[in-house]
Request: fold
Amino acid sequence: MLIALLVPLGLVSLLFTVVLIRSVLAKRAPPSLEAILLGAVTNFFDTLGIGSFAPTMSWFKFRKLVPDQLIPQTMLVGHSIPTIMQAFIFLILLGVLVDPVLLVGCAFALTVGGLIGAPMVARTKVWLVQLAVAIALLIAAILYTMTNLDLIPAGGVAAGLPLDLTIIAIAANFVFGILLNFGIGHYAPSLVMLSLMGLDPRLAFPIMATGGAVTIAGAGTRHLLIGQIDLRIALGIVIGGIPAVLVAAFIVKDMPLEMLRWLVTAVVLYASAVMFQAAHSGRRAMPVEMLAAGETG
Reply:
């Protein structure tokens, strides 16, 4: 079963890597040094369970590194290969302990949702993307706070779920896949949902990482082909994230993360407020833009 999962994951990863390299060479996009450092920090803590999407979005907004409408797809491509590496590590360490139906079903549903959601971002108005990102940041801040206050359930000890809960988990992952394209990470909601259902929280990681790796590779490939992405930033995150995942997975076994979560929560809340303001301003400016377009037409 493990080999049956690792082989397709490897093939999807290879396809994505080829598309990424071709895109970088075609556009001659050298990696950004700041993005390399950002990728190292965010993927290091992502491997330890903090999550990478919210901190990355916060830094993008704080530093104005990427235009708002390009944030989700740039982040997806940037965290692709580091997430794939996490999937391989978690599958090898814990994958054999998880119910294969739950693991494969959730991964497949997340991937389909991710592929369906990829072109939606390119066709969505900028203020709607800003609003989606702002909501994602707010949700992340709430989940970080709940974790620090021990309000998120500790979870059960099960390696699988009953049929009805398995179907619900698979359906939820389809929705999570669509939302990934708008910068809403699936680790936190998946972990909370599976823990509430009684799954051993440790066994949620191979489920989340496998689905995330395949989905990000698939959706990332579509975003690369669409071309609406900041390749310099994305490539930098990839380069910085690869060694960071290895260090976190094999060198750092345990570390206090509560204080870091509080710091991340404060930063994420600030970025969320800024993004909400940008979305509000963009929405209010729409009638003026439409009127100007009508006058010139």
About this structure: The first helix runs from residue 2 to 27. Residues 288-297 have pLDDT under 50 and may be disordered.
